[in-house]
Amino acid sequence: MQNVCKRSNSAIFSRDKASNLIPGDQDPLQQNFTETLPTEMSVRIFSELDVRSLCRASLTCRHWNDIIEASDQLWRSYCLTVLAICRREVDGDRLVGCTWKVTLVRNYRKGCAKRRWLKGRYSNIRSADDIPPNSMCPLDVETWGEILEAELDR
């Protein structure tokens, strides 16, 4: 049996004053809100989302993705509020030219690795071969100092 798509791209209609459908125009009720608003307003709306929702929204459609990816100010606020490794790390990423989103992702991963080390998840490791993959990332001297102090306290 052949699969048939029930959605037709060629039949786009809109309503005229008498609520009759006119071929060729898009129904304003089905129009993407970000296409009707100024970009600044869309960014303001997206700024109300948490990071997970923002990432999911960027997958919704190409237009939303373009707005979210192009808006460095959306990612800046999250990057500065997330538990980053060190302000020096953030500043270093920015000096190199990383976007706020890249800086956020890098520092989030570093933060996760730091928390796992500080919780003692890797306390019983006997050699470098025993370290699980994805548990290491470049950390600054201060962070390694904190980890070493935690290990010595254990």
Description:
The chain is mainly alpha-helical and 154 residues long. The protein has helices at residues 33-36, 39-46, 51-58, 62-70, 72-81, 87-96, 100-118, 141-153, and strands spanning 13-15, 21-23. It has a two-stranded antiparallel sheet. A hairpin with a 5-residue loop joins β1 and β2. α5 packs parallel to α7 and α6 (87-96) packs antiparallel against α7. It comes from Sinocyclocheilus anshuiensis. This is F-box only protein 48-like.
Ends distance: 65 Å
- Shape, principal axes of CA atoms: elongated
Largest sheet: 2 strands, antiparallel
Instruction: Name the strands of the widest sheet in spatial order.
Output: 1-2
Q: Whole-number average pLDDT?
A: 75
| Order of helix and strand elements from N to C terminus | EEHHHHHHHH
Rg, please?
24 Å
Put simply, the count of helices is 8
Strand content: under 5%
Counting DSSP E segments of at least 2 residues, the number of strands comes to 2
Quaternary structure classification: single chain
By secondary-structure content and strand pairing, the structural class works out as: mainly alpha
- Ranges where pLDDT stays below 50 over 5 or more residues in a row are 1-22
Helix content: 40-55%
